[in-house]
Amino acid sequence: MLHKDVKEILLKNPEVKKEYDDLDVLYNIKRQVIKLRQEKGLSQKQLAEIIGTKQSAISRLENENYNPSVELLSKIAKAFNKSLEIKFH
After folding, report:
1. What pLDDT is recorded for position 19?
2. Which pLDDT does position 23 carry in this prediction?
3. Distance of CA 31 to the CA centre of its chain
4. At 46, is the secondary structure helix, strand, or coil?
5. Which phi and psi angles does 47 have, rounded to 5°?
6. Are 81 and 39 in contact (CB under 8 A)?
């Protein structure tokens, strides 16, 4: 069975679908941070040095089920000359 088939089956369960949808915000943030970092040609360590944290903090943000603080995201945004915008829809 393929991954997409398993995913389709699992997402038919409303509880699983809700949990999956709730994680979308976090994974979107991770994708954006990785994209910005790679576009600038920075390693995790280099980004960490710029914002005054450890490489392990960037690694956790990009790779683990970790909820970053608004403060950390704000520092990352500033490092890339971006603004951090959080909205409720």
Report:
1. 87
2. 84
3. 5
4. helix
5. -60, -45
6. no
What DSSP designation does 64 have?
Answer: S
* pLDDT at res. 78: 96
SS3 of residue 74 by DSSP: helix
Tokens of 73: 């995201």
Q: What pLDDT was estimated at residue 12?
A: 93
User: Per-residue DSSP letters for 56-83?
Assistant: HHHHHHHHSS----HHHHHHHHHHTT--
- ∠ Cα 34 89 73 (to 5°): 30
Q: What is the pLDDT of residues 22-80, one digit of tens each?
A: 888 899 999 999 999 999 999 999 999 999 999 999 999 999 878 899 999 999 999 99
| Among candidate residues 55, 57, 66, the one with its CA nearest the CA of residue 26 | 66
Return the H-helix or E-strand segment holding 15. helix 14-39
pTM reported for the whole predicted model: 0.78
Measuring CA to CA, how many Å separate 43 from each of 5, 17, 20, 54, 80? 35, 34, 29, 12, 13
